[in-house]
Specification:
Layout lengths: L1 H16 L6 E4 L19 H6 L29 E4 L2 E2 L3 E16 L5 E3 L2 E12 L2 E2 L21 E5 L8 E6 L2 E3 L9 H6 L3 E5 L7 E3 L2 E5 L3 E3 L5 E3 L2 E5 L4 E3 L5 E3 L2 E5 L12 E5 L9 E2 L2 E3 L2 E3 L13 E5 L4 E2 L2 E3 L2 E3 L4 E6 L1 E2 L2 E3 L2 E3 L9 E5 L9 E3 L2 E2 L1 E3 L7 E3 L2 E2 L2 H19 L13
Parallel strand pairs: 1-2, 2-4, 3-5, 4-6, 5-7, 6-8, 6-9, 7-10, 8-11, 9-12, 10-13, 11-14, 12-15, 13-16, 14-17, 15-18, 16-19, 17-20, 18-22, 19-23, 20-24, 21-25, 22-26, 23-27, 24-28, 25-29, 26-30, 27-31, 28-32, 30-33, 32-35, 33-36, 34-37
Length: about 450
């Protein structure tokens, strides 16, 4: 018995000896050097250089090195490690392939404000991008001592998982501040269509990517979920000219986001029908989508009538199903279009506890609606909602309970409650943008 116990202890100790503790490395564009060792006292310079010099152990999905390298250039950063970035320009983060057994985190060092031009992880697993300011407008001149990146940034400021297959998963961007440019005061309505980048693209391959507590400012499209089981929560999408959030695959969860301020429209040459949140089957346009959740989002067409380039904004526009087993609850929508919340060809969906309101006059008073394009709406539940009107005729089996006409006091009370809830969970002031979620 004692021998068996000794053998078990030996096995545990042997296994433990093979597990390296997670390490923390540092990059400092001001005080660092490409020849540094990555320590706090002798940091590397930029994250772009760290990637280019092969200091991160990038693996393919089979666990083999993703790029060839000499034996003398063994990487230091491995799965489970963190690289903390200090204030200054870090170039761009571009990783073609990198599969990790534990998260590698690229994050802002405490009290620092690192800047990158954009982020692309083509395929991989378990990467976390945290606390960065991301904008190609921040790139220094070519006279800077820190190398600059190519002058043609991609369409999206953050792209995660656009390549690869089912093994590409759990790519996360959180607490970041993304923008095309900060000052758009000189932009025309047409500029709002042609000039801005889009924000976050959770790519078409893999699954379970996440965008959490990011502030996405002055973009074309805000956040796009294009892989199954993706999560977007606690984000702010402010000042956009197309759709705030797009959810396009089964199992997507969109919750506790603030989406506000639509710019430009058809009179400016924009053919997009703008939505706060839009749903459609990616790469197809129409098709069955299942098991999506839309909870506790705030959608406001215009925070102020003084904003330029006004345009109508549809609230939650889910027009191209069938849509099966959706949950749409506790959202607060203030918009200047008929479509406050619309689900077409919905089946076994629940729409509950939402508030849809317009503070603008005129005839475009937003509704909650079950629509149809293929006459497939069946078996939905719509209860405890407040809106200017309700239209459920597309579903002969609908269960409708306690849906009432909205009043201004209802809207203000529910907006205040939901705003307080979001602030409590994610902070009233965004940690990097330094801006409130609602003005």
């Amino acid at each position: 018995m004692l021998l068996l116990r000794a053998l078990l202890i030996a096995l545990v100790l042997t296994a433990a000896a093979g597990v390296s503790p997670a390490a923390t490395f540092y990059c400092d564009p001001v005080k660092g050097s490409p020849q540094g060792d990555g320590s706090a006292e002798n940091p590397w310079r930029t994250i772009e250089e760290v990637i280019a010099l092969g200091r991160i152990d990038l693996r393919n999905k089979d666990g083999q090195p993703a790029t060839s390298r000499p034996a003398s250039a063994a990487p230091k950063v491995k799965a489970g490690d963190t690289i903390l970035l200090r204030s200054g320009w870090h170039g761009v983060i571009r990783i073609a392939q990198g599969y990790n057994d534990d998260f590698i985190t690229l994050a802002a060092d405490k009290g620092h404000a690192p800047q990158v031009g954009w982020v692309e992880i083509g395929e991989g697993r378990k990467w976390r991008i945290k606390g960065l300011t991301i904008s190609p407008s921040l790139a220094p001149s070519t006279r800077s001592s820190v190398p600059t990146s190519p002058s043609r940034p991609p369409r999206n400021l953050v792209t995660l998982g656009e390549r690869g297959g089912e093994d590409s998963a759990e790519l996360i961007v959180e607490d970041c501040f993304l923008y095309s440019v900060l000052d758009t005061s000189s932009w025309t309505g047409r500029d709002w269509v042609t000039q801005p980048h889009s924000g976050i693209f959770l790519g078409r391959h893999g699954a379970r990517h996440a965008a959490r507590n990011n502030y996405v400012l002055n973009t074309r499209f805000g956040i796009q979920l294009c892989a199954p089981d993706c999560l977007t929560e606690g984000n702010v999408v402010a000042n956009f000219s197309a759709d705030g959030i797009r959810a396009t695959r089964d199992g997507n969860v969109v919750q506790y986001n603030v989406i506000k301020n639509i710019f430009a429209g058809s009179r400016d040459g924009d053919s997009n029908h703008d939505d706060g949140i839009q749903v459609f089957l990616f790469n197809v346009g129409r098709g069955t989508l299942r098991n999506m959740v839309f909870r506790g989002n705030i959608v406001i067409a215009r925070e102020s009538d003084n904003l330029p380039w006004p345009n109508p904004l549809q609230g939650l526009g889910f027009f191209d199903g069938p849509l099966v087993n959706f949950l749409v609850e506790k959202n607060v929508v203030c918009t200047n279009h008929y479509h406050g919340i619309t689900l077409s060809d919905a089946q076994s969906c629940t729409i509950q506890d939402n508030v849809v309101y317009s503070r603008w006059g005129g005839r475009m008073r937003p509704w909650i609606r079950l629509g149809k394009k293929q006459n497939l709406a069946r078996g939905n539940t719509v209860r405890n909602n407040l809106a200017h009107s309700f239209h459920f005729g597309a579903d002969p089996e609908v269960k409708a309970e306690n849906n009432r006409e909205v009043a201004e006091a209802d809207f203000k009370a529910r907006l205040s409650e939901l705003s307080a809830l979001i602030d409590a969970r994610f902070g009233r002031i965004h940690p990097v943008a330094g801006r409130p979620r609602l003005e």
